[in-house]
Specification:
By secondary structure, the protein is an alpha/beta fold. It folds into two domains: about 100 residues, Alpha-Beta Complex (Conserved hypothetical protein from pyrococcus furiosus pfu- 392566-001, ParB domain), CATH 3.90.1530.10; about 150 residues, Arc Repressor Mutant, subunit A (Orthogonal Bundle). The protein contains 13 helices and seven strands. Helix 2 packs across helix 3, helix 5 crosses helix 7 and helix 9 runs parallel beside helix 11. The longest helix is centred in the middle third of the chain and has 14 residues. It is elongated and about 70 Å long. The N and C termini lie far apart (about 60 Å). About 30% of the residues are buried.
Length: about 290
């Protein structure tokens, strides 16, 4: 067994000032590796689970070989000292093996990924508008993928927990995002887990009107001053299956949540306050300037 592999069974050796550490110049190029809000929350609450593997580097600095996300989280939190394990006898081949492990794995789950994108989207210089296009360039992800991932944060927190734990798949979660009622989201999530519903079965279930909420709404009183702007949105559960099916198809086509209000005769696209997302809709429809 190589020394890099044996490291994970070793205890912490020492705490050193964090400014003595630096990311390895041998890290894989083009690989996105950063801390996420969850990593920082875990670090604040529990501390480091393992020491950071390092070896002596240039200029007296310590080269970070693994545990990259906790190290970056510590930097962001402003921690003055971090636990390290100095592997001063490690050759380049073993160092590369350890570095590849430290940069592998990506995000822990879709919610972890969504929180990362949401934070980076808001983390822009003063006077700069958050841009999904900028995020797409930084991450190499498509704008449609980013918007769908960000939409997962609109789920009920309990449903997000199910997605994070892997009890609900990313594809199933995308269907649940189209459900506006938080209580119905939770009820559907419970059925997914209890009955092991497939994505297709879930889509049919969402399209089926709920008997509890499909009763006709009371018409407004005579002389009501309600306008199309202030009139309540028709509950999703009261829509007919064809309308719900069309909403889902358009949402999948444009990559953003799409709603039809048959009462008012209007359609709505949720673009999360980002005009670049609307520009992405035009691109998906084949329009270009």
């Amino acid at each position: 067994m190589c020394r890099a592999a044996r490291f994970f069974g070793q205890a912490m050796r020492d705490f050193v000032p964090i400014d003595q550490l630096a990311l390895s110049e041998r890290r894989p190029p083009g690989v996105l590796c950063s801390d996420t809000p969850r990593v920082r929350r875990r670090l604040r609450e529990f501390g480091f689970a393992r020491p950071i593997p390092v070896r002596p580097g240039r200029g007296g600095r310590l080269e970070v070989l693994g545990e990259v996300r906790p190290y970056l989280a510590a930097l962001r939190l402003g921690l003055p000292r971090v636990p390290v394990r100095v592997l001063d006898q490690l050759d380049d081949a073993e160092a590369d093996r350890l570095i590849s492990i430290g940069y592998a794995g990506g995000f822990e789950d879709p919610i972890d990924e969504a929180e990362f994108y949401a934070e980076r989207l808001a983390d822009v210089p003063p006077g700069t508008r958050p841009s999904i296009s900028r995020m797409a360039r930084l991450t190499g992800k498509g704008r449609s993928y980013l918007s769908r991932t960000l939409a997962l944060l609109d789920l009920h927190p309990a449903v997000q927990d199910h997605v994070a734990a892997g009890r609900i798949s990313r594809a199933q979660a995308r269907h649940l995002v189209t459900v506006r009622s938080m209580s119905r989201q939770r009820a559907l999530a419970d059925r997914i887990i209890r009955e092991r519903l497939s994505e297709r079965a879930l889509a049919r279930l969402i399209a089926k009107p709920s008997s509890r909420t499909s009763q006709p709404q009371r018409p407004p009183a005579t002389g009501s001053s309600a306008s199309p702007v202030t009139a309540p949105v028709v509950a999703q559960a009261s829509k007919d299956p064809d309308t719900l099916r069309l909403e889902r198809r358009v949402s999948e086509l444009i990559g953003l949540p799409f709603e039809i209000d048959s009462e008012l005769g209007v359609c709505r696209i949720r673009y999360f306050g980002d005009l670049d997302m609307l520009s992405g809709v035009l691109e998906r429809l084949g329009y270009s300037e």
